[in-house]
Design brief:
The protein is mainly β. The chain has no helices and 16 strands. The chain has an 8-stranded antiparallel beta barrel with strand order 1-2-3-4-5-6-7-8. An 8-stranded antiparallel barrel has the order 9-10-11-12-13-14-15-16.
Length: about 220
């Protein structure tokens, strides 16, 4: 929700603030246009966007946000613990979750989906593999990997999944699986060697490129 245009409102907070109670509290999403987003709505019409102060009010299905002397309007809908937002500077609609908090420790810049995709083929057959994990803003993660191989004698396929909690400190990513196992990885930030605009994170030397649009390191 970076404000990119301004317009005049006849009255901004001069009368009663239409601070829709359904919006009160903290809402967040792990990836909105390449980065985490956290929005705090207070009942008095004040709030924060990624800890930067703002003012807000809601009229019907329109949310007005004032920040840095500019005002932007968004369409919104609250559906239980989900907040659907569109318009303004958003290239596409976004969904935020109620009550999510930032991952413990540092590492908000790591939030997002990261993948390693490989394929190989020759006259004898081919193989492909994909491994993706998503680091979420609420401190949880999911992991999914699958591979397949085909040769003249037949084909094979396999897949695996995992989930748990993650934290980042001192250049190390710690994954605490729901299975009870804890794994610590040395993490290095790199940009893709062929496409410098795509950031990667390398865990113990194994590199994963961003799945979403994120700025380079």
């Amino acid at each position: 929700m970076k404000i990119i245009f301004a317009f005049a409102l006849p009255v901004w907070l001069a009368a009663a603030v239409f601070a829709n109670p359904a919006l009160h509290g903290t809402w967040s999403a792990p990836n909105v246009q390449g980065r985490p987003l956290k929005v705090d709505f207070s009942s008095d019409g004040s709030g924060k966007i990624n800890d930067a102060p703002m003012r807000w009010q809601a009229v019907g299905g329109t949310l007005f946000i004032q920040q840095n002397g500019q005002v932007a309007s968004y369409g919104f809908k609250v559906d239980g613990d989900k907040l659907h937002v569109s318009g303004g500077d958003l290239a596409q609609p976004a969904t935020l979750t109620k009550g999510a908090v930032a991952a413990s420790g540092n590492g908000q810049e790591l939030v997002g989906k990261w993948c390693d995709v490989r394929s190989m083929s020759n006259y004898q057959g081919g193989s492909s593999s994909m491994a993706c994990f998503e680091l979420k803003l609420d401190g949880t993660y999911t992991y999914h990997a699958e591979s397949s191989r085909s040769v003249s004698a037949g084909s094979t396929a396999s897949q695996s999944t995992d989930s748990g909690r993650w934290s980042y400190k001192g250049g190390q990513l710690v994954a605490q699986s729901r299975s009870g196992q804890t794994q610590t990885y040395n993490l290095e930030k790199r940009n893709h060697p062929k496409n410098k605009r795509d950031p990667m994170i390398c865990l113990n030397g194994a590199c994963y490129v961003t799945f979403y649009n994120k700025p380079a390191w």
